[in-house]
Structures are given as structure tokens and as C-alpha cells.
Specification:
Elements: H1 7-29, E1 40-41, E2 56-62, E3 68-73, E4 78-89, E5 92-101, E6 107-112, E7 121-122, E8 127-136, E9 147-152, H2 162-187, E10 215-222, E11 227-234, E12 241-246, E13 260-262, E14 273-279, E15 289-291, E16 297-304, E17 313-318
Parallel strand pairs: 6-7, 14-15
Antiparallel strand pairs: 1-2, 2-8, 3-6, 3-9, 4-5, 4-8, 10-16, 11-14, 11-17, 12-13, 12-16
Helix pairs in contact: 1-2
Amino acid sequence: KNNNFNETEKYEAEMVTKSIYSFSEEILTDDSSLYEPKLINWIDSERKFAGNNPDTQYFSFFLDPKADYTISGSMNNIVFLEITSYKKENGINRISNSITVTDKKDFSLKLSSDKKSIPDLELGKDDYIVIIRYYRNDYTIDNEKPKVLCIKEPKNKKTVDKNFRGKMAVELMESLYRSSEFLTEQIKPVVNKYDDDLDINNPFVSNLYPNKTVAYEGAFIDITDDSYLSISGKIDKNQYFIFLFYNQLWTTPFSEDVKFFNSNNLKTDKDGNYEIVVSTKPMNNVPNNMVISKLKRGIFSIRTFDHDFETPNIEIKRMK
């Protein structure tokens, strides 16, 4: 099926699969108590999957919605963070509640199903997991894990459901891989531009975890050595955004340097107009040159906090 993949692409696929397995295995073997929760670090430089961003860190823990928790940490190097609780509804992961923090002070947030206690994030009766997402200024600096404490236990405490976590691990293993593969197959027919008529109904998304804050765009790109891709538009540099390149399984490259532009390194004019040039070899005197080298094809993705963000113009051009 993948005979048309070059050796670099095969290596990328192997590393993504190992990453997904590693994460699923950690879910499987996690026997942490709901009242002494252990944070699982989803992604690092060696373990990447499912549209990872170089400037994000994801942590999760299992919970009992009848218990109360605090999550605390430092906002140093963080643009904003999102904390989201999830429930299962007809076998699908649904957002139960979500909060976003942009304050630059250190944070300490309370999670509880008791409205009278005035929680920062109100838990629903069916919530079973919380995900904490950090969006950082400097992607080269790893922030310390936030601290999670159970500050009030219920009278009737739950035991760890190993069967549930085992089932979840298997479902995640399949969904994380199949979803990435499916999305690429959906957008692949339209090359080097956005498909305005694309309507994706991903059958593998039920076991994944959506979020409320960040909007997404994506296009399949395939560039020859004698061509380059021009992506141009207008951006508000005060808003969170990131333009980046993924391999065909929606993961930043393992075999090459991660390629991305955000508010820290994207060059624009005074009005916020920009052009990003994607090529297989470095181009002289190009301010925003994204060099994708041996991969040559994959996904050019945009993530932004601005849900009214206008899709940029994307055009393939020949080298002069």
C-alpha cells in the first residue's frame, strides 16, 4: 500500500506509530489512583502524534467527578493554557467544560462538581479525564508539569478500572493512527491548495479529544525541486497562531528540523501582511523560507486562536 513512500517517509511513519504505541502503553499501564492522580505527558521531542505543535505541552489525568481538585503552576513562558474535562456520550468523547487562562500570574484553579464551592472549572457527573494544554512562547523551553492535588475525596471512593483504561488504550492506539491516515487521504486529491468544498466526516474521531480554543486549516502539499509554494495573507501578530509542516501522519518531522512560523519568527510588514515560501532547498533573500528537504510532501497546517482568521492565498510557483 505504501510502496510509493520514500525511505524518509517510511521512517516518519515508523516513528509516529512507535509514538502512538508508547502513549497508548502508558495509558494501559497507568494504575494511578483517582485521588492521587498522576499526570501523563502526552508529547515530547521523541513522542509526537496527532497534529502536535512544537510550542504546546499536553498533560492529562483521570478523575472522580465527585472529588475536588486543584491544578496549579507557573504562567512563565505560557501564552495561554486551556483546561478541559471530558465525558463519554454514546461512546464518543465530548467536551464537558473548558476554561482558558491568559493571565500572566501563576495560577491555582479549583475543579469541582459543587457549584456552591465556586469552582474555576465545574465538573460534570460523567467526567472521567482532564487535559491541560500549554501554549508556550519559546518552544525550546519545556515548562514544568502543573501540580494536581485532590483536595476533597468523596465518601464512596472509586477503585481504578483497569479494564476501562485498557480499552481506552486500544481505542486510542487505533484512532490516533487511523484518524491521521484518513485525514490525509481526504485532503490528498487536492494538491498545493485548499479544497473549499471539502466535507470531512472522520469515522475515527470518536476516541480523540477536541478543544475549544484553536481553529485549524490544512492543505496537502507536494513540491518538486524546481518549484516552491507561496502562502500569503494577513495576520494579527497579537493573536496566537502557528504555521507548520507535518509529515503525512500529521506529525512534525522526526528526520528533520521542525519547520514552523509563529508570532516570534514570522516576518510581516507593518500591516501584518506576510508571505511564507515553502521549498525543498534554501532560497536566498526570502524572509520566511520553510525548507522541507527530503520529505517534499506532507501537510501545511495553520492553527490560530482567531476563529475569524482568513484562509491565506496558496499558490505553486516555478523557480526562476
